[in-house]
Structures are given as C-alpha cells and as structure tokens.
Design goal:
Layout (H helix, E strand, L loop, with lengths): L24 H4 L7 H9 L1 H4 L13 H14 L41 E7 L2 E6 L4 E5 L3 E5 L12 E4 L7 E5 L3 H6 E3 L2
Parallel strand pairs: 1-7, 4-6
Antiparallel strand pairs: 1-2, 2-3, 5-6
Helix pairs in contact: 2-4
The protein binds protoporphyrin IX containing FE.
C-alpha cells in the first residue's frame, strides 16, 4: 500500500490508478506508458527517469537482476494472474501474529484472533498498557507504540483495533484503528 498496485501494469499509463491517492505530480505528468523499456529505465534509476517522483527506491543497477525481476513481474501482473493470499499464523509472544514481520501482504484485520484484538489501552507516565481479547496485557514504552489507521477493506472493524508487532524483540508494536477519532477515545489515562 506504500505504492500503487502493479496489477495489469504492462500497457498502463503511469500515475493513473484511481485506487492510489498519493501519486506525485511528476509521475502523473510523465506521459509514460509502462512497457519493457520504460520499466527497465524506471527500475534502473527512478529519479533519473522521472525527477521528483515519490518512489523512495534507489533502483537496481545489476542488469541481470532487473531482467529477472521484469520477467517475474510481467507474469505476476498480467490480467488474471492469481492474487497472493494474505498470510496469517501464530507468532511467539503475541498469539496469532506470525508471518507478518518480513514483508509480504498486509493481513486482513476484519476478523481478529483474540490475541491481536485490542480491548483496552491505558496510559500511565511513560507507559501504554494494551489489553487484548485473550485477557493478556502488555506494557510498552510510549515511544515504542505506534497508533495507525486503516480505512480500507483490509482494515479493522470499527471499535475493534488490532495490535501488530513491529520489531524483532517484541518491544515495539502498532495498534491499527478503523478511524482516527477512535484513538484518543480508547486510550484511558490510568495509573
Ligand atoms: C523493485 C521494486 C519496485 C518495483 C518493481 C516498483 C514499481 C513501481 C511502478 C511500476 C510504479 C508506477 C506505477 C503506476 O504508474 O501506477 C511505482 C510507483 C511507486 N512506487 Fe514503486 N516499485 C518498487 C519499489 C518501491 C519501493 C521500495 C517503494 C517505497 C518504499 C515504492 C513506492 C512507490 C510509490 C510511492 C510510487 C508512486 C510514485 C509517484 O507517484 O511518484 N516502490 N512503483
């Protein structure tokens, strides 16, 4: 979701998907039609091909690696190519959050396992305590907990935010809400 969907990419005009709200003016006005040649240039060095575009990626200098990637993309993005399924599983310490630390598709948060459904958040001095639907409460230093929203079809239901791990050590996490107004409502100052 950081960048636009690459489904049906070949033959598409750059910067024109209505499902992506964050295109740069540079890409929108580039006039590029994505084909083998255009994509090879883009992936070699996006900033050289479209100055001031917003894709924070330095490019792939190795021509062989680029050719391999383009061959893969061409197949994976063609119309009717199977969609990758979101992964869900169990992770140490935060029941049911596995398979989500190393990239891959973001999991759908509509139906949450109890271990990741947030029931309450309290705030005391420099500490948030997050209680999940399985009855467990975990404490986080306030700068290690992030509050986010996901209003998409994959986001959580209203009033049922999810907690997701965000680091190797289990000391950081994100709580993802359906909408911003839910955030302060849920956080209760209490020591
Ligand atoms: C090899 C890896 C990548 C490939 C193949 C790729 C491919 C593309 C393509 C083809 C577009 C244009 C799509 C369109 O016109 O609709 C695009 C745009 C974009 N990508 Fe990537 N991308 C890659 C890596 C990344 C990374 C690492 C990020 C962010 C960290 C990123 C973020 C974006 C963003 C924000 C845009 C919109 C740029 C703008 O409007 O200026 N991409 N990407």
């Amino acid at each position: 979701m950081t960048g636009p969907s690459l489904a049906n990419l070949w033959g598409r005009k750059a910067g024109e998907l209505s499902s992506f709200d964050r295109y740069s003016d540079a890409l929108k006005s580039s006039g590029i039609i994505w084909d083998d040649r255009a994509l090879d240039g883009w992936l070699t060095n996006p900033q050289r091909m479209v100055p001031d575009n917003d894709m924070l990626f330095e490019g792939i200098k190795d021509g062989g690696a680029r050719a391999d990637l383009l061959a893969f993309l061409k197949d994976a993005t063609k119309p009717g190519a199977p969609q990758q399924m979101a992964q869900q599983g169990g992770m140490k310490g935060m029941g049911g959050m596995g398979g989500m630390m190393g990239g891959g598709p973001d999991p759908n948060l509509k139906k949450l396992e109890p271990g990741i459904q947030v029931k309450a958040i309290s705030y005391c001095r420099d500490t948030y305590r997050v209680t999940t639907a399985d009855g467990k409460t975990r404490a986080f230093w306030e700068r290690n907990l992030r509050f986010k929203t996901d209003s998409s079809k994959d986001g959580p239901e209203k009033g049922a935010p999810a907690i997701m791990p965000a680091g190797m050590m289990g000391d950081r996490a994100s709580v993802i809400f359906a909408a911003p107004e839910e955030i302060t409502k849920m956080i209760e100052p209490r020591c």
